[in-house]
Design a protein that fits this description.
The complex is a heterodimer of chains A (about 300) and B (about 150). By secondary structure, chain A is mostly helical. Chain A has helices at about 10-15, 20-40, 50-60, 70-95, 105-125, 130-160, 170-180, 185-205, 230-250, 260-280, 285-305. Chain A contains eleven helices and no strands. Chain A is globular and about 55 Å long. Chain A starts with 8 loop residues before the first helix and ends with a helix. The relative contact order of chain A is 0.15. Chain B has a single domain (about 15-145), classed as Rossmann fold, CATH 3.40.50.12280. Chain B has helices spanning about 10-20, 35-40, 75-85, 95-100, 130-145; strands spanning about 20-25, 55, 65-70, 70, 90-95, 110-115, 125. In chain B, strand 1 (about 20-25), helix 2 and strand 2 (about 55) form a beta-alpha-beta unit. Chain B is globular and about 45 Å long. The relative contact order of chain B is 0.21. Classes of the chains: A mainly alpha (about 300), B alpha/beta (about 150). The interface of A and B includes residues 56, 60, 63, 214 and 224 of A.
Chain lengths: ~300, ~150
């Protein structure tokens, strides 16, 4: 059973691990991103409530649907990714809080649900009838082909290493009795490095912000979006920035939830921000090369090492 | 053409608009001088992200239109197009003497008119070119007007 207390479903989805909690922490994470970037560029940076002000403003603005776009798809696309990320957050956090709520295969469910924000982006870009949107959608498609295989292999390494457990609760139990996955040997460290490098691509952050490269293609799939539905996209990105590192931490480094876990999360966040601020954007063919040659080799090496027991 | 940019904001929406104005930069036949001053205002030295101001690439995301240059005959349809694409409510800021009055181009064959004859303007920032400080001050005054 996913939810031990049926009446609590609403609370889980809307308030605590789901919508409200993830939105607030996710927006604060985007503030950390902007503030640290500003400090790196020797600026002061925005105040802590900046992302909230952005969303409040976008909610109050006009939503324009372009004349020749396919209206229904254009309006529904942001909510596909948004709903998926709420579900991911709920499943991952509930598995952490009540390990009993985890079911066999929820790891696979989470991996599938994590595809949806990217797919929503592709749908949005294609339906908006904008050349920049179409370009952004096509780039996102290629980038997805590049990074998802690699991340799947990193997760596969964890599964091979712990002997075929494919539920988050099972992985957490395993780590509680055997120590964090990261301390289990070289294969998991390699898989963790692969997952770390996968995160900027999934989150659309430099050096892999190719689909929405604002210096080349305006805002990519977001170009025609305005008002409340643009705010939904911003929220989805913010929530992903929080949920994805937590998911990776759950897989690799979860022993007990202590203040150290927050530090772990902040460390991953700052790593992503530092990579963002010290690297230029790569081209789409370079991104494919990075992910399909060295990274794929690395992740296959991880699986082989895990299979022989390292 | 309407006479205002629909500034009927209240409560949290007004707060959001004041704290997070995203600007879109539109040149309607300027000599590039004001454009460079706008870019200067966006540099880390002035750090306008402190006030939540970001430069965006599309009028759909914009809250403030920074218009530079006299409106030339060729630029007029583009200006109207971009103005209609901007999600309302928005502020329109005339940067430089050219969009404010026409300056030395007043009466030329290619000069359609000061910007406020074509679209409603909220803030005028005269100067040839205005300093970055003047541009930031003008935008702050425009936001205070809301």
């Amino acid at each position: 059973m996913l939810f031990p207390h049926g009446a609590m479903d609403f609370f889980y989805f809307i308030i605590f691990p789901g919508f409200a909690f993830t939105v607030v922490v996710g927006l604060l994470s985007t503030w950390v991103d902007r503030k640290v970037s500003a400090r790196i560029q020797w600026r002061v940076g925005p105040p802590w409530y900046q992302p909230f002000a952005d969303v409040a403003k976008l909610m109050g603005k006009e939503t324009i649907v372009t004349e020749r776009s396919s209206r229904m798809t254009f309006l529904v696309a942001p909510f596909i990714g948004f709903a998926a990320i709420i579900l991911v957050s709920t499943i991952v956090w509930l598995a952490n809080i009540y390990p009993g709520s985890s079911f066999v295969g929820d790891l696979i469910v989470v991996v599938y649900l994590l595809y949806l924000p990217s797919i929503a982006l592709i749908i949005a870009g294609s339906s908006s009838r904008n050349p920049f949107g179409a370009l952004g959608a096509s780039r996102e498609m290629k980038l997805m082909l590049a990074y998802e295989v690699v991340f799947l292999f990193a997760i596969f390494t964890v599964v091979v290493k712990n002997g075929g457990i494919i539920s988050l609760g099972g992985i957490l139990d395993y780590q509680a009795s055997h120590g964090a996955m990261l301390s289990q040997g070289a294969s998991c460290i390699i898989a963790f490095i692969v997952a770390l490098l996968y995160m900027p691509a999934k989150l659309g952050i430099v050096p892999f912000d190719i689909p929405e490269a604002e210096t080349e293609i305006i805002a990519g799939p977001y170009t025609e979006y305005s008002g409340a539905i643009l705010a939904i996209f911003k929220l989805t990105k913010a929530m992903l920035l929080f949920t994805l590192p937590i998911f990776v931490l759950t897989l690799f480094a979860k022993t007990v939830w202590t203040p150290w876990t927050i530090l772990w999360y902040l460390l991953i966040l700052v790593f992503i921000i530092l990579v963002k601020n010290t690297n230029p954007r790569v081209r789409i063919d370079q991104a494919l090369k990075v992910f399909w040659l060295p990274m794929l080799g690395l992740s296959i090496l991880g699986i082989i090492l895990a299979a022989v027991g390292l | 053409m309407s006479n205002s940019n629909n500034h009927q904001l209240s409560g949290i929406k007004k707060w959001g608009f004041k704290k997070s104005p995203w600007v879109f930069h539109l040149s309607t036949g300027s000599c590039n001088n004001c454009d460079i001053e706008i870019l200067d205002a966006l540099t880390p030295r002035f750090d306008i992200e402190r006030f939540g101001i970001l430069l965006v690439g599309t009028p759909r995301h914009a809250d403030i239109l920074l218009v530079t240059g006299i409106v030339t005959v060729q630029a007029l349809p583009r200006l109207l197009h971009v103005y209609e694409q901007t999600a309302k409510p928005c502020l329109v800021v005339a940067v430089g003497t050219c969009p404010c009055t026409g300056g030395i181009f007043d009466g030329s064959y290619h000069h359609v008119g000061p910007l406020d004859k074509i679209i409603p303007v909220d803030v005028y920032i005269p100067g040839c070119p205005p300093k970055p400080e003047a541009i930031i001050s003008g935008i702050v005054k425009g936001l205070a007007k809301l």
